[in-house]
Automatic annotation (TrEMBL):
GO terms for molecular function: MAP-kinase scaffold activity. Gene3D superfamilies: Ankyrin repeat-containing domain. PANTHER family: A-KINASE ANCHOR PROTEIN 13 (PTHR13944:SF18), AGAP007712-PA (PTHR13944). GO terms for cellular component: actin cytoskeleton; membrane. It comes from the Eukaryota. The gene is Akap13_1. InterPro entries: Ankyrin_rpt-contain_sf, Rho_GEF. This is AKP13 protein. One of its GO terms (biological process) is positive regulation of canonical NF-kappaB signal transduction.
Length: 260
């Protein structure tokens, strides 16, 4: 028996899971442990990192649907077959950050919805809450399967930059969401949004300057600006056909996802 803490994770993954081992499964130096998550349509295999002889940690994978999956703890030792030493169940859930990302993705170009989001600015959440929101919504956005035609500026590409309007980039910059801004910059329409004025005459660039968001302003204006340091703590994914490999640099943990 093993104990997973927590026993659920958001669909977009990237949260730390601690594995508590029983006395007989305590970590020996020459044993490597893996977790295998088996869902209805996809399977994930994650490497682990030893915290102490009685516990491991890994990163939850991003999953394709809300469901309870089976998790097997596998032990590998050179010259010996791989053994399944324990099994447990684990749940993938859709959280508020995922809901927010879905809402924002459908908001692109929708002026009524984008103006509605401005109430968040008036409530001015504390900096720690903003950082948490930024990380979770950026992760969730990255996990969404956006349509090929999706654009930061919305579906109507006939609008010129001379037409004042609110954009998703205004929203991200206004709240100081560094990771989300970086993500949007990489999407179609992301760079184009930087020169669009809203009804108050503000562009995302002028908003960053006005709010004193120095790192954000550099990200938007410096040629060849690199991803923010805070983004590099998140995992990096490489896709290849039905497989994807993810590396979480912070924990140095690898995750392989494949169609079951």
């Amino acid at each position: 028996v093993m104990k997973l803490n927590p026993q659920q994770a958001p669909l977009y993954g990237d949260s730390v899971i601690t594995v508590q081992l029983t006395e007989e499964d305590k970590v020996e130096d020459d044993v490597v442990f893996y977790l295998v998550f088996t869902g209805s349509t996809v399977q994930h295999c994650t490497s682990t990192r030893k915290i102490n002889p009685g516990s491991l940690e890994t990163i939850s994978p991003g999953h394709d649907c809300c469901e309870t999956v089976k998790v097997a703890l596998c032990a590998s030792r050179e010259g010996h077959p791989v053994l399944v030493v324990a099994e447990e169940s684990f749940q993938f859930v859709q959280d508020e950050a995922y809901d927010a990302a879905q809402f924002l993705a459908t908001c692109a170009g929708n002026q009524q919805a984008l103006n509605f989001t401005r109430f968040l600015d008036r409530s001015r959440p504390p900096a720690a809450d903003v950082d948490f929101l930024d990380e979770k919504v950026a992760l969730a956005f990255r996990h969404l399967k956006l349509p090929a035609e999706w654009n930061v500026l919305g579906a109507d590409q006939s609008l010129t930059e001379n037409i004042p309007r609110e954009t998703l980039m205004h929203f991200a910059v206004r709240l100081g969401l560094l990771r989300l801004t970086w993500f949007l910059l990489q999407q179609p329409g992301g760079r184009g949004a930087l020169s669009i004025h809203n009804n108050e005459g503000a562009t995302p660039v002028s908003l960053a300057l006005e709010r004193g968001y120095q790192k954000l302003h550099q990200l938007l204006t410096e040629e060849g600006a690199r991803e923010p340091d805070s983004w590099s703590t998140l995992s990096h994914t490489v896709h290849s056909g039905d497989y994807s490999v993810k590396h979480h640099r912070g924990l140095d943990v690898y995750l392989l996802t494949a169609q079951a």
